[in-house]
Amino acid sequence: MTLPQGLTPLRRPALLWGILAACIVRLWLMPLTSSFWVDEMVTVFVVRHPADPSLAPVPQVPASIYYWLPRLTQHFTQHLFGESEVSWRIPSVLAMAFALFLIGRIAARLIHPRANWFAMFAGLGLHGINYCAADARPYALGICVASLSVWFLIRWLDASRWIDGLAFVVAASLLWRVQLIYWPFYLVFLIYAALRLARKETKAGFWQTAGLFGILAISLIPVALNALLVLHQASAHVISELPGFREFEHATRWSLVVICTAGTWLVARLLKWPIPRASLLGGSSIVLIAAWWLVQPLALYVFSRVTGDSVFISRYVSLALPGTALMATAAAAMFIPPDRWASVSLALGAGVLLVMGQWGTAELRHDNSDWRSAARAETRLATTSDMPVICLSPFVEARPPIWTPDYPLPGFLYSHLSFYPLKGRFYLFPFGAAARDGEAYALRLTADTLSKSPRFVVYGANNFWRSWFADNPELKGWRNRLEMFGDVQLAVFDAPETAADTAHGVR
């Protein structure tokens, strides 16, 4: 394969950097200005109210060390971007950028010295990597810390330098503190270290390595105790159905591995490339990459099925995404000669930019939940400053006895009301069809307040309460309409007189 006219070896690095920059701008930076989804507004709430009593029912939420990152960077980012979604998301962009760099370094160390660009573009080909990079939540930091831990563990086992061993212990001790659901990833460290020691593929001795893991285990005791306390109330925080095999295989993102493998094989056959002979990839490296790819989703899948409490959520298995990118790179390495890595990486980067860029729209949305537009629409539709606003909590914990009609604001269960303000008088409702207490409250409120108001709105992301009010005999003859902002609903209820005025153009 010859280089296209004018594409000299000196220009290839510039092209690689150019495509990488274009991918980051399009896939990471352009979605930063879009609306928060509900958990990002939790980030704002926790940073602003770190010791708020309303966080007591959800001790796992403020426990993450992630919140120190936006807390430390807010002064600088708000100076540049103001009090905006961008200022809160920039820390995740920086964390994921460093993680992407580490993925490239690990690929160069384990697979081939020139495989770094391919691995980074493979990472950008994963929606989860791009989503976490623009997300004001702990997952980009988690991916970064996990990658850093693996990097230092490889260096320790390769050269047995104590600085690398201690750096591994520090990084790995932070990982579980980023997110309590990251506990399975420690199996990756154990599997890789045990295999390297068993095969005598390391300069580090058994007792030295065992000592490092012992120090790590001691450092994790406080986190483990905290995790056990949360485990006792795990069923109260379940937000998804039990996963089936289809959900598990989808979480592995195996399609990227297949595409990279089949694509490089086809190009190698068409262009008659010689079979690569030099490779750094050994048995231990393959096991590390496979463990990184599969351990987190497999462990959470088994845990969910055994306990009946599902924790199998895409963001919780996001630690596996670098492993997916590395597995795709390792599979492609079987067909890429040493002098073709740059050309193949260029092709992959261009393909990722083309396929993942959503070029049919100028504005990229980070998430399907558009709370900002919903709040603006509610403010526009408010007839008076005391118009009743039925505020539904989007959190599964919003059930009696934690939830009550007089739940104090600001509070965790309604943290989404703080960042995007509404106009009107709030009436707080539980999550979904939350027991008879919520229904009894709704009956009283309908008779005493709603039926006497010319208009009220139901604000949230749930169908139950909108249908409940629409079917209520007290509101017979009322008209209601639904406005959708992604998966956020704004249901507007108008009294018969108001509905008639609206139909004739009177607001």
State the gist of this model.
The chain is mainly α. Helix content is 56%, strand content 6%.
Question: Can you describe what's shown?
Answer:
This protein has about 500 residues and is mainly alpha-helical. It has 2 domains: about 350 residues, no CATH class; about 130 residues, no CATH class. Helices cover about 55% and strands about 5% of the residues. The chain is built from 21 helices and 5 strands. Strands 2-1-3-5-4 form a 5-stranded mixed sheet, sandwiched between helices. The radius of gyration is 26 Å and the shape is globular.
Give the total of beta strands. Answer: 5
Question: H/E series, N to C?
Answer: HHHHHHHHHHHHHHHHHEHEHEHEEH
**Helical coverage, percent range:** 55-70%
Using the alpha-carbon principal axes, give the shape. Answer: globular
Question: What is the CA-CA span between the terminal residues?
Answer: 69 Å
Q: What summary fits the major beta sheet?
A: 5 strands, mixed
Class by helix and strand content? mainly alpha
Low-confidence stretches: 1-6, 503-507
**What is the overall number of helices?**
21
Strand content: 5-15%
Q: Strands of the biggest beta sheet: in what spatial order?
A: 2-1-3-5-4
Kindly give the count of domains: 2
Mean pLDDT: 91
Q: Whole-number radius of gyration?
A: 26 Å
